[in-house]
Write a structure and sequence with these properties.
The chain has a single domain, classed as MetI-like fold. The N and C termini lie far apart (about 50 Å). About 75% of the residues lie in helices and about 0% in strands. It is built from eleven helices and no strands. Helix 3 runs parallel beside helix 6. It has about 240 residues and is an all-alpha fold. About 30% of the residues are buried.
Length: about 240
Amino acid sequence: MVLGFYSFNQSSYSASWQGFTFTWYQKLFSDERILSALKNSLIVAFSATGISAVLGTLMAVGLARYKFPGKSLYQGTAYLPLIIPDIAIAVATLVFLAAFAVPLSIITIVAAHIVFCLAYVGLVVRTRLTNLNPHLEEAALDLGATPVQAFTKVLLPQLTPAIIAGCLLSFILSLDDFLIASFTAGSGASTLPMEIFSRIRTGVKPDINALSVILITVSAMIAGIAEFVRISGELKKPID
């Protein structure tokens, strides 16, 4: 509410109110640096989310339906990004990239974001899997379906709401991430949170307030949609 109030302040500083204006929102859409950073953030978020959706779903199904050596160890490792602080992930990723002499770029940001997006997608899908009847796939196989057909035509449609919810959640986290992106970005690969941070070091101006309001609003809307999709999927009556 405070950010929203001052984002409409005509004054160039937030110390006093000098009138209502939309100037700062108009200025955002003509700022080339902001638009370039937004483009990079969207590329990273969409790429990381898309890859995580596929790998996270397969990981969740594999952990829920199959047994293999080292399963417990792998499961614990796969969900570590959920509890490890972002700064630890950022430093570990940077050390790993430096050890293999991988040049930093927007691709390394995507790779780093996949690490934690994968965990969130896997967790949401795994939760949905626990509420499904495992015998449905066996019934499909008994009726002549191949394992791939049983997965795509029986299991995947029931997992779709959870996959969408996990993707939306991952998209928000990737779009809003600053720490991991700042450690793994190369020159010229600035994301929107990085651009905001670089500007507030010299003081918070109304245009940054306006940008922050937009980010908060968009993030809240996407989070609300993700939760709605997840709950709707859980409330659906399972196939008998």
